Amino acid sequence: MNIEIANLKDLDTIFALVKIVTKTMNTQNIYQWDDIYPSYALLKEDIHNKTLFVFKNKGHIVGITVLNEQQEPEYQNISWKYQEGKVLVVHRLCIHPNFQGQGIAKQLMTFTEQYAKSNNYNSIRLDAFKQNENAVLLYKNRKYHQAGIVNFRKGAFYCFEKNVYIE
Questions:
Q1: What string of DSSP letters covers the chain?
Q2: pLDDT < 70 stretches in the chain
Q3: Alpha-carbon span 94 to 145, nearest angstrom
Q4: Residue 55: which of 65, 47, 63 has the closest Cα?
Q5: Does this model's pTM top 0.90?
Q6: What is the rounded CA–CA span in Å between residue 121 and residue 87?
Q7: Are 28 and 81 in contact (CB under 8 A)?
Q8: What are 67's strand-pairing partners?
Q9: What pLDDT score does 1 carry?
Q10: Which residue, 2, 165, 167, is CA-closest to 84?
Q11: What is the pLDDT of residues 75-89, one digit of tens each?
Q12: pLDDT for the residue numbered 166
């Protein structure tokens, strides 16, 4: 597992990865991402903030995730189970279609959980597009608790959370 913080020189590669993933999701009738989100500017900001992590396979970026404390305003309407302590939020996790099904998303989530513990977070929160069955299953299989549903521009998203100290 080679996961590291993205550099600005990686931006074009990361944006190309996002575009390939978006196109693939569209062919699967998962209309979660588009030309508006995630944008080049947003990914650049993630890199600038040192919150975008890349998964490399033989030196090539094949997956990404963003880890920060930014909760969407819609999260305020969710009855979160874990209210105490710092909260780490997962955004924009994606894997190149040629590398999906190889456990890379699981490795990125293991990294996320270890990162949360190492940086004194109490819980992890994220949302998953309701129509993205593979993503929803990933989080359920990792024992994330479904806390509610929010609606964003593209539709309904399940909100998940996990206390990093309770297995």
A1: -EEEE--GGGHHHHHHHHHHHHHHHHHTT-----SSSS-HHHHHHHHHTT-EEEEEETTEEEEEEEEES---GGGGGS--S--SSEEEEEEEEEE-GGGTTSSHHHHHHHHHHHHHHHTTEEEEEEEEETT-HHHHHHHHHTTPEEEEEEEETTEEEEEEEEETT--
A2: 1, 167
A3: 21
A4: 63
A5: yes
A6: 6
A7: no
A8: 90
A9: 61
A10: 165
A11: 999 999 999 999 999
A12: 81
Please enumerate in sequence order all residues whose Cβ is within 8 A of that of 4, keeping only pairs 6 or more positions apart, or say none.
Answer: 53, 54, 56
Q: Please give the structure tokens belonging to residue 160.
A: 């998940």
Q: Burial letters for 27-49: b for 16+ Cβ neighbours within 10 Å, e otherwise?
A: eeebebbeeeebeeebbbebbee
Alpha carbon 13 to its chain's center: 18
* Tokens 């975008």, located at residue: 52
- What token pair was written down for 93? 């996790």
User: In this structure, how many other beta carbons lie within 10 angstroms of the beta carbon of residue 7?
Assistant: 12
Structural domains in the chain, sorted by start: 2-163 (3.40.630.30)
Single-letter amino acid code for the residue at 147: A
For the chain, what's the residue count? 167
Structural tokens at position 17 = 């990865």
pLDDT at site 167: 65
Q: Which of 100, 106, 94 is nearest to 1 (CA)?
A: 106
